[in-house]
Amino acid sequence: MTNLQLDDQGRLRHLLDVAGLPLAATLQLLDRAEAIERASGQGGLASALSASIVATLFFEPSTRTRCSFHIAASKLGATVIDIQPSQSSATKGECLIDTVANLHAMGCEAFVLRHSKNRIAAEMAAHFGFDLAIINAGDGTNAHPTQALLDAYTIRQRFGTDFSQLKILIIGDIAHSRVARSNIALLTQLGMGEIRVCGPENLLPRDLTANGTHACSRLEEALSDVDIVMALRLQKERMHAANIPDHAWYFSKYGLTEEKLRLAKPGAIVMHPGPMNRGVEIDSALADGPRSLILEQARNGVFVRMAVMQALLASHRP
Ligand code: CP
């Protein structure tokens, strides 16, 4: 993946997956997001991408990712074209390569793509090379790089840059979660002290736990001594009917509540990438309480996506 994302001079040209991204590139993006956050409100970035056109193509629903890319691009002065697949010529049989090629011919330089097919963003990058920039906004169960970056950014904001003494627990439908996959890859790269995953046995894949991630099916045990607890949604759209747990059973076993959180470190924080299903994977009181950083994650998503677009589009300029 490294070669698809970086050019010969090591510049980031596509953002497809955090797995394979060099540590230096990750840190540059996080530092750039921090600088953008510091500068926000001072008007210093408004025209940074004023000559750029960014297209968003979301073949799966989204609120946070789609809107924060729009806001991020607008704050940088770019023009945003929102392609709604249900209203586009994709409904008449046009393939994605042709859609992207035509939009590129009209002047679009960057394409923010969400799709149900694993690795489709990488396929587009391989096809078009560095003529344009592809940003993976979530592909199937494979990767969600900007979510992982904004989660790492949020953790860094709270705990500082040294993750080596921190323990994180990710709870839920790990098997179908591109967020879990990307977070595990990025937090491993950033030196997270310990990564645990917890969920029903049939929603815990073996490949995620192969490289040092600890898997546990008992939540009470998994919560012990962790600093960060991340709850995930059950991704019913990617499950077979037999996989879908009964909500009441799931909440009693794996739903995160204030009472269960007492088993974690005092001061442990709660995260969720959204969308949340209240009363299924997380209790409302906890989601809305003082230990929740869920809205902070959404806020930070704008800075991180500004950083990604600025890095990519700057490297496309002669
Ligand atoms: N976290 C996330 O990807 O949310 P959306 O599906 O709303 O974009």
Question: How is the topology of this model organized?
Answer:
Elements: H1 2-5, H2 23-39, E1 53-58, H3 64-75, E2 79-83, H4 96-105, E3 110-115, H5 120-128, E4 133-139, H6 145-159, E5 167-171, H7 178-189, E6 194-198, E7 214-216, H8 219-223, E8 228-231, H9 247-254, H10 258-261, E9 269-271, H11 284-287, H12 294-316
Parallel strand pairs: 1-2, 1-3, 3-4, 5-6, 5-8, 6-7, 8-9
Helix pairs in contact: 2-6, 2-12, 3-12, 6-7, 6-12
The structure holds phosphoric acid mono(formamide)ester.
- Count of separate DSSP helical elements: 12
Small-molecule binders: phosphoric acid mono(formamide)ester
Helix content: 25-40%
Number of strands: 9
Strand content: 5-15%
Radius of gyration equals 19 Å
Structural class: alpha/beta
Main sheet characteristics:
5 strands, parallel
Spell the H/E element sequence.
HHEHEHEHEHEHEEHEHHEHH
Shape: globular
Strand order of the largest sheet: 7-6-5-8-9
| Rounded mean pLDDT score | 93
Low-pLDDT windows of residues: none
Distance between the first and last residues' Cα: 24 Å
Briefly say what this structure is.
With 318 residues, the protein is of the alpha/beta class. It has helices at 2-5, 23-39, 64-75, 96-105, 120-128, 145-159, 178-189, 219-223, 247-254, 258-261, 284-287, 294-316; strands at residues 53-58, 79-83, 110-115, 133-139, 167-171, 194-198, 214-216, 228-231, 269-271. α2 (23-39) crosses α12 (294-316) and α6 crosses α12 (294-316).
